[in-house]
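dumping this here before i forget
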Amino acid sequence: MLLLSVGLYVPRPGEIYLDEDACSDLVNRLGANLKRLVSLNLENIISILNRAQIGGYIRWHMLWHVLLNAADEPVSSTYRICENTYIVTLTTVDGPGLGSLDERQLCELLQALGDGFNELRKLSVDQVTHVLDCLRIIGILKCSTVGPPVLPPPSTSSVSSEHYGMDPPRPAPPQVKSLPPNGERLHSTVSLSHPAETFDLLSSELQPLTNGQPATPTFNNAECFSPGPANALPWPNGDAISYLTPPCSVNSPSAGRPLIFQSASVSPLGYPSMNTPQSIGTPSLASVASPICAASPGTEAGSMFSPVLSPCPSNALQAARPLILPGSSGVSSPHRRATGTPRSPMDPHQREVVVRMLQSCRFHDRDLPLKERQIHQILRAGAAITTQDPSEMLTPLLRAGPAQSSLDSLGVPEEWEGINGAVNCLRLLDADRDKRNSFTLKPLARRIMQILLYINYEKLRKRSDTDVLNRILDAYVDDPNAARTEQSRKNRFHSFHIRRGKWWWRLAASLGFGILLIAAEDLMNIMNIDTFTNDQMDAFIAFILHCYPGTVELFRSLEPVAISILNGEVPPSFSELIFSDDSGLLSQKALWIAHNNDQQALAAQWTSTPWVVEKSKLLANEKLAQFLAFLDGGA
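structure:
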């Protein structure tokens, strides 16, 4: 087995998009040439790679002979720091062989392979990943990764790595590393700048191959996320924060703890530390420096929520040249549109695996499988888990004045608690739903208002022995639906407004509250039209956790911001915090990393371990109880 990393030019503006037939043709030609390459002896392989660099097909290469040479160093390397390149790493199923070519045959193979690399580098990152996935499916490659680009510093003058914000990455053998069963974090964090360390981990994963045993991917569906990192923010009782996560085994389901909301005695500028577990061994969101600085915990009553983080001043943000993804404008400004990578459609093999995994889902209280129609609805909802234009979703907050609250900037009533607060929210939500009106809420305002209405309703029910809903409807004197029967008005309240707020809360409690900020508008529409059941919601959450861990990490990195918005606050330097080119939570780099992690996790799914579906309702209720306690304490 060979491990090959090459540096290819970054896709340039005007990149080519291949249709299905052209893509299949490229896969066929590139696969045949790669298969021919690995059938040669090492001397011939290295000769072709060196000539490919001289000919400009690649900028450098690093080659490991995995099975026969366990040394840390590659057998051949011309690696150098090159700007405007990205790293493609291939693990071949076969090779090296014993074949040998004469000079003419070497030149022919070099030209054919070089033409394939030339076509590959003209494609978008998504299509490069798709081509490599196809090569894996047909058995040419065992696995592959597409690493982040190495971009030039902001100026042409000499800039140190400290000013640039990150060290230039070195290629590393790919790996798909799950967290250990006990839920602890890996003690050694693999970095792109330490290929030898990565090689050690990969070598141990490939050990079964040396014994003649069939290899299976090491990505364990049941260990995609741990209950929480060891250094997570402590809960008042000393436990760590956790989310609803796939259990490590059928017999040991994970337990969840509510997230920590801001204490009234904590500075409104502070945010809880939200460390999220990494799911696979690729550059993760942990490598995207968040523009948040540690602040010393105070001695006030709220200090049990320490460590508290506060935003760095804007001059502490080092803005590097943005990573431009397909569809983005490439304009660098504080309000530059951050366009997410389009979610790549599953190839037939991936879709078949995911469908089988959903078919195998079993629920704790009954053994009934999901119906085919329900599985189709889950897949439709999965395609809407994120919007392709996060900046458009957050526009009202980007325009907020310095003294303006988040609720005011979104058009959400400042008075949302109590009976009058419920009526205030109902009035706007009904006006938004009435198509005869020109009034329309922004998507973020709508979902925030639905959640606040749900929270307020549950709080009123908890405090009052009387019929809360009747009191709300009686106070809603200008209800445009007042002519309807009382039961019809109650059904409308529960089935539309409260139901949606409850589902948003349930998704946020399990996947991270950042979902409120960047989920596509169609997500809740799909769920409502299809009338998701509780089992479907639980299976949908399991599907996202297993197949889109990069997106889940993105949601959780945004959680402190989302909680601040629910609390009525716009974080200082909001646009830089979110969209700073180098360290923004939704920078092009962060979006690209999340997308790449999703693609690798999706490609690594196997049907050998059925998904055990957790009851997301339990965790949602637990976090709701905590938030209600916070409201009572802050009143």
